Structure prediction request, 205 residues.
Amino acid sequence: MSKGRLLYNYPLPVRVWHWINASGFVCLILTGFQIRYAEVLNFMPLTVAISIHNYVGFGVIANFFVWLSYYLGTGNVKIYIPDSRGWLALVWEQLKYYGYGVFVGKHNPHLMSPENKFNPLQQLVYLVVMFVFLPAQMMSGLFLWQIKKYEEYINLLGGIKLLDTIHVLLFFLFTSFLVIHCYFATLGHTPLARFKAMLTGFEEH
Prediction:
């Protein structure tokens, strides 16, 4: 089978950020499960899990601001902003592909390029995840880290129980997102093509 053309879709800063973020998420999820279900899980001491969770959490927060600075500084943040022109029709085409086309060998209706990296559904999901859910999770985590110090702000947000509930719900959301993200990453022209692209920067089309 002949090879397609190679496009440099993932610059080095994006790849470095991505893998730091991915490893941080996995670590936070594992330690989060240990902290949340300490009475039934015991794959690491609770104090160790809390300590790792806190340190890695700060690393993910710092990494987020590196990501934000890069995309704002380069102007590439626009790849996350859906184009309102024909957006619903494009979303419908993408839904049909994910719900049916991908299982019968249809081609992805979205043609990826460095300037148009995400399809309309990805744009919507990543926009909400990166600019709403992730900042909310980081803020709730910071408040839970120093409850006494941020008690006034916690009370303004509805109290510790509500804040903890938000943090846990977002924790499950990010866990689900990671699983779904890995599944969709296998939908390239080969199951490992997109994983390879995130290592080399080049994606075959």
Summary: Residues 8 and 24 are 25 Å apart (CA to CA). The longest helix spans residues 46-74.
